[in-house]
UniProtKB/TrEMBL annotation:
Belongs to the FKBP-type PPIase family. It comes from the Archaea. Residues 5-110 form the PPIase FKBP-type domain. It catalyses: [protein]-peptidylproline (omega=180) = [protein]-peptidylproline (omega=0). This is Peptidyl-prolyl cis-trans isomerase. GO terms for biological process: protein refolding. Keywords: Chaperone, Cytoplasm, Isomerase, Rotamase. GO terms for cellular component: cytoplasm. Its EC number is 5.2.1.8. It is found in: Cytoplasm. GO terms for molecular function: peptidyl-prolyl cis-trans isomerase activity.
């Protein structure tokens, strides 16, 4: 058992486990990112260091890593509530297009990111993306992009430093 305070070094692959099961949405492994077509050149692909007990990752992943041996690979499934949360309709807001464009000084385009400071419908500071644009309104979704999705993480324990 890996003790609290130890640093576990892992590679991970995050996959959807629901309707689009198997689709990779994130990884720490550059080879997987290239193979799956999700590589971004502005990202540093490197093993992830997790200090056991510091709550820097999902508790289910930390618990699994604590019981793994170096070199072992394990897949952990997380329900939406354990991962990126449930999807909430009240986190989708519609705002007047003219107001949003005046505040942001840009043209509203589907897929663009928008800060919640530009809306009256969301209290906390977060980022959403524009999901629909009409002549008069803009719809913005402030849910996490994976909200409501069950996910799987394939974890490979590379090393442990006590």
């Amino acid at each position: 058992m890996i003790e609290e305070g130890a640093v576990a070094v892992i590679h991970f692959v995050g996959r959807l486990a629901g309707d689009d099961a198997g689709a990779v949405f994130d990884t720490s492994d550059v080879d997987v990112a290239l193979e799956e077509g999700i590589y971004h050149n502005n990202r540093d692909y490197a093993p992830l260091e997790i200090q056991i007990g510091d709550e820097s990752t999902f508790p289910e992943i930390e618990a699994a890593v604590q019981t793994m041996n170096e070199g072992e690979t394990r897949t952990i499934r997380l329900d939406p509530e354990e991962a990126f949360g449930t999807h909430h309709e009240d986190r989708i807001v519609e705002v007047p297009r003219a107001d949003l464009e005046a505040q942001s000084e840009t043209t509203a385009t589907e897929g663009d990111l928008v800060g919640s400071d530009l809306t009256d419908g969301i209290d906390d500071a977060c980022t959403g993306w524009i999901t629909d644009v009409t002549a008069d309104t803009v719809e913005i979704d402030f849910n996490h992009e994976l909200a409501g999705e069950p996910v799987e993480f394939e974890i490979r324990l590379l090393s442990v430093d006590d």
